[in-house]
Amino acid sequence: MTVDSPAVRLQGVTKTFGRHRAVDHLDLTIPRGSLYGLLGPNGSGKTTTIRMIMGILHPDEGSVALLGAADLDETRRQRVGYLPEERGVYRKMRVLDFLVFLGEIRGLARVEGRRRASDWLDRLGLEEWADKRTEDLSKGMQQKVQFVATVLHEPEFLILDEPFSGLDPINQDVLEDIVRDFHRRGRTILFSTHLMHQAERLCQRVCLISRARKVLDGDLRELKRSEGDGAVEVEFEGPSGWWDGPEVSGVDLAADHVRIALADGADPQAVLRRGLAAGAVIRRFEIAEPSLHEIFVRHAGGEGAVDAGVPRELALDGVAGGAA
């Protein structure tokens, strides 16, 4: 892969299961070194797309290139860390042995795999569980072990499908920090989720899929600016009602601020001047951008949350890190 080539390129990709079209003519480019969010409701086609990127499923139409090539050979597979949505561990194996085994599959020498696994277990507070069977761990602990299995071989490209599902807020923060650290070190990360607040915290670029089709794709900040609805948010002290005027099309009063919707072409500074003239003490005055959640609902709000993706008989019950 050249420095300028994308980590992933999908062109016209379509995948159908029976009468259900899971992915419909999807074009997608993930730049190298980006932290990219693949977003959409449950059943919108995210996991099917990831499985085609990984070569687990093959598209009915279109082409998929990963790390500069269409064929995912074993050498290229070892450059990828894949945490699938369907989790799985070898329940009778001891935690450290399980991680060392998966490290060997990805080309790590046993001694190096054991050293790295021990370091990761220490980092995640699991060092006391290294000699326990994986079935003895709580669900959250098992999930952290599976995350370690995904990153143990220091992949250049991470694919994380709903990685924080089932974790408590503290452990979500821990894993988010690790994801950011990988990104700072130049790794490419594809993060798939239906939880918009997590994507908004992590991602630079996003693609929103709804009903198997791409509806938005681009830099997150630019998308938020382009999706803005012409509003300002104001925190103030003093008299109220000063915002009434020809520039204002609506007002939403909250506990600690007021959101003022502006008429088309209105100058926000005119509203600010009116507030100051009325004697209001303005603590905060800023152009309001929509949250990713609001954008999500605006473009995919009619889509149900039922997971209508890959039929269960086609789903993978793979081992953590995509070691299927």
Description:
The chain contains ten helices and 13 strands. The radius of gyration is 23 Å and the shape is globular. Helix content is 31%, strand content 26%. The relative contact order is 0.17. The chain has helices spanning 46-53, 74-77, 95-105, 110-123, 139-151, 169-184, 196-202, 220-226, 268-277, 292-300; strands spanning 8-17, 20-30, 35-39, 61-66, 80-83, 157-161, 188-193, 205-210, 213-219, 231-237, 248-253, 258-262, 281-287. Strands 5-6-7-3-8-9 form a six-stranded mixed beta sheet, with helices on both faces. The protein has a four-stranded antiparallel beta sheet with strand order 11-12-10-13, with helices on one face. Strands 2-1-4 form a three-stranded antiparallel beta sheet, covered by helices on one side. The protein has 324 residues and is an alpha/beta fold.
Map the helices and strands.
Elements (H helix, E strand, L loop, with lengths): L7 E10 L2 E11 L4 E5 L6 H8 L7 E6 L7 H4 L2 E4 L11 H11 L4 H14 L15 H13 L5 E5 L7 H16 L3 E6 L2 H7 L2 E6 L2 E7 H7 L4 E7 L10 E6 L4 E5 L5 H10 L3 E7 L4 H9 L24
Helix pairs in contact: 3-4
Helix fraction by DSSP (H/I, runs of at least 4): 25-40%
Rg calc: 23 Å
End-to-end Cα distance, whole Å, is: 25 Å
Strand-residue proportion: 25-35%
Oligomer: single chain
Which strand order do you get reading across the main beta sheet?
5-6-7-3-8-9
* Main structural class: alpha/beta
Low-confidence runs of at least 5 consecutive residues: 304-324
Number of strands: 13
Overall shape: it is globular
Sheet with the most strands, sense and barrel status: 6 strands, mixed
What is the count of DSSP helices, taking H or I runs of 4+ residues? 10
Secondary-structure element sequence?
A: EEEHEHEHHHEHEHEEHEEEHEH
Overall mean pLDDT stands at 87
